[in-house]
Amino acid sequence: MSTWFDEDVTCPACGATIHARLAHGIHAARAPEVREQLFARTFHRITCTTCAATFTAQRPFIYTDTERRHWVQVAPAIERPRWPELETATGALYDRAFTGSPLALELREGMKLRLVFGLEELREKLVIWRANLDDAIIECLKAQLLAREPRLLHAKTIVVDAVTDGALELVVDGTERLAIAAPLVEQFHDDTRLPGHFPELFGGRYVSLFRLTGPRYRWAQPA
Ligand SMILES: [Zn+2]
User: Fold this and answer.
1) Residue 8 Cα, ligand 1 centroid: separation in angstroms?
2) How many of the other CB atoms lie within 10 Å of CB of 166?
3) Phi, psi dihedrals of residue 159, rounded to the nearest 5°
4) Are 139 and 185 in contact (CB under 8 A)?
5) Could you read off the pLDDT tens digit of each residue along the chain, which spans 223 residues?
6) Could you tell me which of 71, 140, 151, 195 has the fewest CB atoms within 10 Å of its CB?
7) 177 — phi, psi (to 5°)?
8) Which backbone phi and psi does 205 adopt, to 5 degrees?
9) Ligand 1 centroid vs 88 CA: distance in angstroms?
10) Nearest C-alpha neighbor of 63 from the set 89, 92, 43
11) Which pTM value belongs to this model?
12) How far does the centroid of ligand 1 lie from the alpha carbon of residue 120, in Å?
């Protein structure tokens, strides 16, 4: 069952308080319209009742699709620097959700377990998986792109917007569009050496190039 709550959100344009129905948990197998809304970027899209501005409400939630075997914790984008801590928490949360019954064990099998930051990154994973591509390999392709174009090292976000005939369409920092040709995407998917070259991108819950390019994280030491 998907869970929804009425919450007050603040309009970023005029500061008005708006009453909105937001998800705390989504079960996409039972609510296929949500998956479509994510692709269309209309999920959690709010129109301000005072000034008519539209914006996307950011709140943490868990996206589950038992049919396609997706289990994604969506954290607010602003919390990205805390990813090592949140990655551990994601694993623990997942273990709690799928412990106990034989059915739970069956559901665990082959589940893609991920931590993402913001709706755009959730959408990116769904776009990649819909095209039967591997999100860790896609991050390797982004790493190769950075090696070719070092100026992109300063980019805050590089996300897959679409996969068209096997080619990736990427958006850098929400504006610049770049493409990675289908033959290269295919070549990377056939390359069995990649997990050895980029072990950080394979096997974790946070499958993102940011693991390699982001600032070094330090665990807060208890005083
Ligand atoms: Zn407003």
Assistant:
1) 13
2) 16
3) -125, 150
4) no
5) 688 999 999 999 999 999 999 998 999 989 899 999 999 999 999 999 999 999 999 889 999 998 999 999 999 999 999 999 999 998 888 888 777 667 677 777 788 999 999 999 999 999 999 999 999 999 999 999 999 998 998 898 999 999 999 999 999 999 999 999 999 999 999 999 999 999 999 989 999 999 888 766 555 555 5
6) 151
7) -105, 135
8) -90, -30
9) 37
10) 43
11) 0.91
12) 22
- Tokens describing residue 185: 């995407």
Tell me, in angstroms, the distance from the centre of ligand 1 to residue 47's CA: 8
- Measured in angstroms, how far is the CA atom of residue 32 from the centroid of ligand 1? 30
Look up residue 166 and give its amino acid. Answer: G
| DSSP-derived pairing of the beta strands 167-172 and 158-164 | antiparallel
Buried b vs exposed e over 6-35: b needs ≥16 C-beta within 10 Å?
Answer: eeebebeeeeeebebebbeebbbeeeeebb
From ligand 1's centre to the CA of 54, what distance in Å? 8
The residue behind tokens 């993402």 is 116
Give distance in angstroms: CA of 18 to centre of ligand 1.
8
